[in-house]
Amino acid sequence: MGVSPSFQAPAGTRDVLPPESARWEALVDCFARVAGQAGYGLVLTPLFEEVEVFARGVGESTDVVSREMYEFEDRGGRRMALRPEFTASVVRAFIQYRPTTPWKVWYWGPAFRYERPQAGRYRQFHQVGVEGLGSDEPHLDVEVVALAWRFYRALGLTRLRLDLNSLGDGVCRPAYRSALVDFLGSRSAELCSEHRDRWQLNPLRVLDCKKEECRAVAAGAPHQLDYLCQPCSDHWGAVLEGLQAIKIPYVVQPRLVRGLDYYTRTTFEVAAEALGTAQDAVGGGGRYDGLVEALGGPPTPAIGFSLGIERILLACDAEGVFASAGSELAAFVVDVTGGAAALAITEELREAGISADRAFGRRSLRAQLRTADRSGAAVALIVGPEEAAAGTVQLRWLRSDRGQEEIDRAKVVSRLREELG
Ligand code: AMP
User: CA of 399: how far to CAs of 346, 381, 392, 396, 419, in Å?
Assistant: First the structure.
């Protein structure tokens, strides 16, 4: 063991190295495919925005904004924040460019929240997600939920629970809110130490509190679903009907609220039952029909979701699915004549679209063959002094008992194409 390194990744962050990173590539590829199939295009937004984008978008009183945001002043004196989530950024971009609607986009990348690090909870975590702006049709809600569901299924996850609720809208939420305030007012002494004094600031948040005391009170709280106005009630009914029509199972959770303020109407969360911990949410989303206006744009109904990549991979481990992708290497060149042949052959193979790697450092035949074997390559191409003189290579199959044969150096590409398809 050497001296311990002086620098480590910051608390709450992780390095993702090969071969684990192959899974990340495969996961993002899978998401890109599922989203692309449904007409969603990739959107790339900055990792940081003006603080106000999130303060107004996500909500000043939310934990995400008030306690967890990475804020800084840039060298020009502007207040900036690393994005704690994507939706507000995507909406900011929508308002800036006014694309034609419906505007359907997907994304992936890191988000930052100053949380207490623990299993499945990081300060830099990664999400995949979609946003669909410009339609209030319940079928868009169904499409978005179905897309998330199809993605989880494509990874092989099965032990999932889709929790669904409606949070109403600007018309019916006030009546619900005042019923909730009345209820909480009568039980405030029983709330957790934090909410006992702060519940009035954002009463909905009490329903989201994980503390035993708040949960006990929340169990008897009135439900938004009982207060929906007619249009919200019709929307809710149509979403449920649509999900039933395409056979996506859901559980109505009248107490489901989410940590961000901008949600209206359909709200959902997906829990991975295999995780069996407090950190079992592998994704969530919902409608945010008022957010575009709140950020200064035209009234634009919208819906989206974000799924946590780290949590999804933990769920995959817990279910024993979506194993690390194997090596994609076709050929490994072993050259004991100095390396010129390895250089020429690997580059020729790569130019021809055949993946290839080689050893460095003029190592022995045995050492190079060991590396070839570990690389996962299907075949080793071996060049010794005799092969170099004869213009040939030894072709040795590493994953089958076909043994070894000598072939003409000029035929390497065509032969591998034939064999590897
Ligand atoms: P949210 O934007 O809070 O609804 O989060 C959406 C999803 O991102 C959650 O369901 C988690 O899967 C994931 N997520 C949120 N916060 C974290 C975190 N601090 N660490 C890891 N994953 C997270």
Answer: 20, 13, 22, 9, 13
